[in-house]
Design brief:
single chain; 217 residues; alpha+beta; four-stranded mixed beta sheet; 9 helices; 8% strand; binds glutathione
Amino acid sequence: MTPIITAFENSPDGGKGLARDMPVRWALEEAGRPYEVRLRSFTALKEPAHLALQPFGQIPTYEEGDLALFESGAIVFHIAARHAGLLPDDADARARAITWMFAALNTVEPPIFEYDLAQILERDAPWYGQRLRALEDSIRKRLGALSARLGEADWLDGAFSAGDLLMVTVLRRLQGSGLLEAYPNLAAYVARGEARPAFKRAFDAQSALCTGRPAHG
Ligand SMILES: N[C@@H](CCC(=O)N[C@@H](CS)C(=O)NCC(=O)O)C(=O)O
C-alpha cells in the first residue's frame, strides 16, 4: 500500500526543504518506498479533516491503509522500523541510533528552533539583540558537544541511520548563519547527508512544488 503524506501547498521556505515533510520524504527515499503527497493550504490545516489526522493542525502526516500518524520523528521511526536501511539490525546499535533520533529532536533542535522563531517574531522587541546572543550561545554549546562527539567520523554511530537523517535535517536550519560553518566537521557532515541520492530525490520533489520545475533524480 502506497503511503500518503501531507505537505504545504505553499511552503514558507520557498523550497529549501526546511519544512518537516522533508525528513519523511528523505526516509521514504532511503527505504526505497514510493509515496503520494496531499498538499494542504494553511487554512485546510486547521479544518476538521486535517485535525483528525494531526491534532495540532500541522504537517506532516502519514497514512498507510488504516494507520494514520503525525509527528515527523515518529513517522521517520515508523519507516525506519519497517524497512531496511535506516536502523541497524544489531539490537544495541539500533538502540543507539534511536537515541540519536531523540537527541536531534529533543536536545539539538530546541535552541535552533527558538533562534529561527526569535528572528521572525521578536525582531522589533527591545531585548532582541540580547535574546539572539543568548540563543546563539545555547546553540554553540550543543554544536560544540556534537562536533566533539562526531570527530572525524562520517556518521554519528557507524553506518548512516535515521539518527543521522534527523540530525542533518535539524542542522540544515543553521546553514548560512555562520553558527554551523564554525564547526567544519559538522558542516561537512551536513554536506555528506545532502549528497545522498535519497536526500536529493526528496529535496527535488519538495522544491519542484515551489519552483514549478519537475522533480528528477
Ligand atoms: N513536532 C512536529 C512539528 C510540525 C510542524 O512544526 N509543522 C509545521 C511545518 S514544519 C507546520 O505545519 N506549521 C503550520 C502551523 O503550525 O500552522 C513534527 O515534527 O511533525
